[in-house]
Amino acid sequence: ADRDIGKSHGAAASRQKRQFVVDWAFPPESSQADVFDATCGETELLSGVLSGVNACVMCYGQTGAGKTHTLGNLSPGSEGIMWRCLERLLAEQPEGEPQQ
């Protein structure tokens, strides 16, 4: 058996402490609705998209931290940001205008 599996060699083994600047970090008790409202729902992000401005929402974190759950969860009542944004965009699309 290879006993080196899972060991880091080189640059990864000599990681230095780094500081990162973030806009917001949500506490564990935050609901999907809380995260959506703070990042997309109560901001100008979606109205900008409807006006033709590009937007990007990114989740960053450790494996298993909940990034996929936060962005793409489909469970009723606990939908992720992506699905809530899509619902809001479709609801706010003016009547009679083509959807692109």
Automatic annotation (TrEMBL):
Gene Ontology molecular function terms on file: ATP binding; ATP hydrolysis activity; microtubule binding; microtubule motor activity
UniProt superkingdom: Eukaryota
Record's GO cellular component terms: kinesin complex; microtubule
InterPro entries in the cross-refs: Kinesin-like_fam (IPR027640), Kinesin_motor_dom (IPR001752), Kinesin_motor_dom_sf (IPR036961), P-loop_NTPase (IPR027417)
SUPFAM superfamilies in alphabetical order: P-loop containing nucleoside triphosphate hydrolases (SSF52540)
Family listed: Belongs to the TRAFAC class myosin-kinesin ATPase superfamily. Kinesin family.
One GO BP: microtubule-based movement
Domain Kinesin motor: 1-100
This protein's name: Kinesin motor domain-containing protein
Keywords assigned: ATP-binding, Motor protein, Nucleotide-binding
PROSITE patterns xref list: KINESIN_MOTOR_2
Annotated organism of origin: Chrysotila carterae (Marine alga)
Annotated ATP binding sites: 61-68
